[in-house]
Amino acid sequence: MHYKIDTKEKFTVLSLLDPNLSSNLVPELNDLIKKLGTNSPKNLVLNLEGVKDWDLSIMELLAQHQEVFYDNNTSFVLCCLSDDLQTSLDATEFGEVMNLTPTETEAWDIVQMEEIERELLDSDDMEFSTQE
To answer: Which CATH number do you get for residue 57?
Structure first.
């Protein structure tokens, strides 16, 4: 599997460069996403601009990681899906649970907004607990 990693202050961008994401890539992609999700910064933007086709098992894997990231109070955003990828995703239930944006810049914005939201919620929780 070919990919590029770009680390920013609040998130990491993982750009997948293989045009076809087949089921045989699931173990390697799973390990890579787990590794990126445990290293700082823990928020992940997955850029799929170079991908033309993907198997159902890849979509399922990404949906599972979406849930894990959010359970860990971190962001996982997919961006730059081609029309073909979007169509195949829309044919499944996975499209409803994934955080998708048309561009990488919009994905960055989502991550930053979610970071602010988590900070505000954390400060509200702290404020509430001190008032008890």
So the answer is: 3.30.750.24
Residue written as tokens 């499209």?
Answer: 95
Beta carbons within 10 angstroms of residue 24's beta carbon: 10
108-to-59, 66, 84, 115, 127 alpha-carbon distances in Å? 21, 16, 23, 11, 29
Whether 130 shows a pLDDT value over 70: the answer reads no
Tell me how far apart the alpha carbons of residues 92 and 74 are, in angstroms, rounded to a whole number: 24
Domain count, the chain: 1
- Tens-place pLDDT, residues 39-79: 899 999 999 999 999 999 999 999 999 999 999 999 999 99
Evaluate whether 110 touches 101 at the Cβ level (below 8 Å).
yes
